[in-house]
Amino acid sequence: MSAFFGGSRSLNGVGGTAKGFVTTLEDLTLRQDLAKLTFLPWREVIPLRGSLLRSNRAWCPTCFEEMSQEGLPIYEPLIWNIKILSICPKHGNRLRDRCHHCNSKNFVLNHKSRPGFCSKCGQWLGENVEFDTIQELLELEWQIFIVRNLSGMLSYPQEHVSKLNRNILVGNVNTLIDHFTNGSVKAFSEKFNIKRTTLRSWLNASKLPCLKSLFEICYMTGNSVCDLMLNPSMPISNPRNAMPMAERTTTRRPKKSDVGPEVEKHLRHTILRSGIKSPPMTEVARELGYSKYLLCRHYPELCLAISENHRRFKRVCKENKLQNICERVKEAIVMLSASGIYPSRAKVEDYLQKPGIFFDKTVRNTWRTNLTEILNK
Ligand SMILES: [Zn+2]
Ligand SMILES: [Zn+2]
User: Fold this and answer.
1) 17 sits in which H/E element
2) What is the 3-state secondary structure (H, E, C) of 185-197?
3) Ligand 2 ion local residues (Cβ < 5 A)
4) Closest-approaching ligand to the CA atom of 59
5) What is the whole-number distance in angstroms between the Cα of residue 136 and the centre of ligand 1?
6) Which fold has domain 139-145+158-250?
7) What span, in angstroms and rounded, lies between the C-alpha atoms of 298 and 124?
């Protein structure tokens, strides 16, 4: 079963698993349009293997939070599973692939899967995120391009998609090579940073370009992805004056070095001090001026230790507080009965000026036991 869940990402893909699953779901639900929720219609031009889908679940915490607050059904859009997409098309913040409670990654589908909840710890994955927007302009531009073109693909009229034909794609790549580098495959591969062998395998149709490469070519040459795959008379635009892909990819994710060694030192120090004070990760992140998510991604073990210490600290505080309340309830019973007042729950609450303390079972039991004792005296 776990092998099935490990491979569950292929459910949204273009392979046999997706086809079988969609057919079964359509049979069960009597719907004919579920294939549109996958990349099935594009299987003629998108390779089965490669960089299409994430191996783990990704989500926008702000989207979940909004769905919940507006009372809408919680669902996970297909677009979150596309590997090259790293932002939420609606909010612009980074998609998450780790639970902010337990820091675990989730399979795309699991026997405990429930939209909006972590399949490891079962907690709610929604949260209003303020800090996780993309700062790097070039990366943002690339991500916006991805969103626009993915939406274009998913909403492309079905009757056109069904006519997809590899030859159109190969023809269009040839047209681009002719146009930009006078037919030189070598020059084109250098200009657009694609391996020459890869480019040749596309041209002789022995391999299909992966989604990422398709998007990169279109981004650099200023074309739409749908045009490249479907339009036999694709218009030629001016190439984008952008950095080569290799340079751009280095700016996609902040590296550990950007977070800085002083951050790690601070995190370790927080763990060492945890006997005295155990702040939550949100507070530690705020002190450092980084998002909690960024820190968790770079220092998962340290952040997990801090969160665990905080949980333990909170549990101890709660136990101490409860013990303290029980002691005061005992005192109140003695004091009230000494003044000739029956120490009812309401009188004890009034005396201690602590309304609602009897919601706790331990406090109720303490009251009952001590009351019986004093009345029997
Ligand atoms: Zn969102
Ligand atoms: Zn979790």
Assistant:
1) helix 16-29
2) HHHHHHHCCCCHH
3) 99, 101-102, 118, 120-121
4) 1
5) 19
6) 434 Repressor (Amino-terminal Domain) (1.10.260)
7) 22
Query: What does the block give as tokens for 294?
Result: 């960024």
Instruction: Count CB-CB contacts under 10 A for residue 328.
Output: 17
The first and second tokens of residue 84, run together, are 């090259």
Residue 150 Cα to ligand 1 middle (Å) = 16
Query: What's the 133 CA to ligand 2 centre distance in angstroms?
Result: 22
Q: Which ligand is nearest to the CA of 307?
A: 2
**DSSP structural state of residue 232:** T
pLDDT in tens, 319-340: 888 899 999 999 999 999 999 9
Could you tell me the two tokens for 233?
């008379």
Kindly report, residue by residue over 51-66, the tens digit of the pLDDT.
677 889 999 999 899 9
The one-letter amino acid code at 317 reads C
- The model's pTM is 0.53
Evaluate whether 102 touches 118 at the Cβ level (below 8 Å).
yes
Residue ranges per structural domain of the chain: 2-42, 139-145+158-250, 259-376
Q: What's the Cα-to-Cα distance from 78 to each of 13, 59, 150, 154, 278, rounded to whole Å?
A: 10, 10, 11, 10, 39
Q: What CA–CA distances, in Å, run from 285 to 59, 60, 129, 215?
A: 21, 20, 13, 35
